[in-house]
Amino acid sequence: ARDLSLNVKTEASDFTLHGATVHGTFLTEAHIAAYIRPSNTWMNMTYWAKEVGDGNWGWRVINGTCAGHPFFLGPNAAKDCGPFKIVSEYASAQLSTDEWDVRILARPVYNRIEGPKHRLDLSIRPRVAERDLAAWPHGIIGQSFDGDGIALSGKQDEYTGSEVTTSAMAEGAIEGVAADYQVHYPYETRFKYSRFDATMGSSHPRAMAQDRPYAEMAKLPPTTFASSSEVE
Fold it and tell me: What is the pLDDT of residues 178-218, one digit of tens each?
């Protein structure tokens, strides 16, 4: 989105699900970069699954910088950074901007065999109507807020048999391919479809929504939220 970037890291994980051994991945790091244009400063924030303890919480699960000044947050804490607000609870945190709420929830990896002990689930909710955003968002999740009110389900893995190796990469639900969304740095804001510096006038909804006239799109019910799946 304009002035807001959310990047995640995935890690390989082996676990059991409904009696099958699954070789898959989970989200384990969430990195947010937000730009404060009036003051030409940045807010960077990271939520680390590896800092979550056996009780599903940790004293330093969140760290970041506000205008270059470092901060750390544990449970039940809050941090204001210009127009952005971070609020942490026992095992979650929410970043709120004028346009977005981004919620990060830490959860155990149940029935773990090997790999990370905790994972992260994400949910993203716009605080304004999609047509009133500063720019049409993009990204693997962001592009779902395309104004057409239609949910797209991409390729899904089949959990049949005694052993499953996941391979689905959202084919059919995203513009391009998953590799188009990879970045090299935690707080990187540039990728093939980046809208970080875009405006509503210079951006457009993802290609899958472009065949609908804007007048028709505006009549459809807005997307209320998007989230990461239970099993990646």
Answer: 999 999 999 999 999 999 999 998 888 876 554 444 334 44
| Burial call 165-189: b when 16+ CB within 10 Å, e when fewer | ebebbbeebbbeeeeebeeeebbeb
pTM comes to: 0.88
Sheet with 118-126, edge to edge strand ranges: 77-81, 84-88, 92-96, 100-108, 118-126, 226-227
- Return the structure tokens found at 198: 């875009």
State how far the Cα of 216 lies from the Cα of 232, in Å rounded to an integer.
33
Nearest to 3 by CA among 40, 44, 30, 36: 36
Residue 147: its pLDDT value, please? Answer: 86
Report the SS3 class of residue 200. Answer: coil
DSSP state at residue 176: S
